[in-house]
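thought: user wants a sequence for this fold. calling inverse folding tool.
action: design(structure=
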């Protein structure tokens, strides 16, 4: 039986803290949430490695848990507050919403694949996470029924400018994610001020693109 608690501590000490993550709320959350619960049993030994972990098995659409350090850096950049309402886009099996749930008041998590949305709900319920609502919805759609949001987090990259998601931010709200719009993918933060949206680069990184946020076929940059 793998010692997951030790692996979790090694993940934090070897991947999260060396990545300039200093927010102890995030560090504590990532120490507490059992990442192995969100991956297929056949891949549980890989749960704490520094990689984007495919959790879709034989599914038609590939879905991933992002690298732990990238996840932590995005969360720190979002400057999440305890009273925030947050939208997680492309939640896969629910790991990122489970982390966010420890940092904020309410979480809405969308997932385009119905079977995976159901799996995320089941895992979160088993772990007793009560402040996350999982909805089946396309990545580009967000979930306007409960907008506006204080923060939106993309659990993957976008090759498009996700304007519909921008519109679901409240004034002063933040969206963080990896933007693969050009030759160099990079994490960015987008902030809303009235009807204006300003962006700022955070760090270069490459992660899998979320279904529904792919560049149209035939597009040439």
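)
observation: tool returned 221 residues.
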């Amino acid at each position: 039986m793998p010692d997951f608690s030790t692996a979790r501590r090694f993940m934090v000490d070897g991947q999260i803290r060396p990545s300039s993550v200093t927010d102890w709320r995030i560090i504590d959350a990532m120490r507490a949430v059992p990442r192995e619960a969100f991956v297929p049993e056949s891949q549980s030994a890989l749960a704490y490695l520094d990689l984007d972990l495919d959790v879709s098995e034989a599914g038609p659409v590939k879905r991933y848990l992002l690298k732990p350090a990238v996840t932590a850096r995005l969360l720190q950049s979002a400057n999440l507050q305890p009273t925030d309402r947050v939208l997680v886009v492309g939640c896969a099996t629910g790991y990122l919403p489970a982390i966010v749930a420890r940092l904020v008041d309410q979480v809405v998590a969308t997932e385009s694949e119905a079977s995976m949305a159901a799996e995320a709900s089941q895992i979160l319920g088993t772990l007793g996470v009560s402040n996350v609502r999982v909805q089946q919805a396309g990545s580009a759609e967000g979930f306007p029924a409960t907008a506006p949001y204080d923060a939106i987090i993309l659990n993957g990259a976008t090759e498009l400018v996700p304007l519909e998601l921008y519109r679901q931010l409240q004034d002063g709200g933040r969206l963080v994610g990896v933007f693969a719009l050009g030759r160099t993918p990079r994490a960015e933060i987008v902030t809303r001020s009235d009807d204006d949206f300003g962006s700022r680069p955070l760090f270069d990184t490459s992660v899998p693109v979320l279904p529904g946020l792919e560049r149209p076929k035939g597009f040439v940059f």
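thought: summarizing for user.
answer: Here is the designed sequence. Residues 4-204 form a domain with the Rossmann fold fold (CATH 3.40.50.150).
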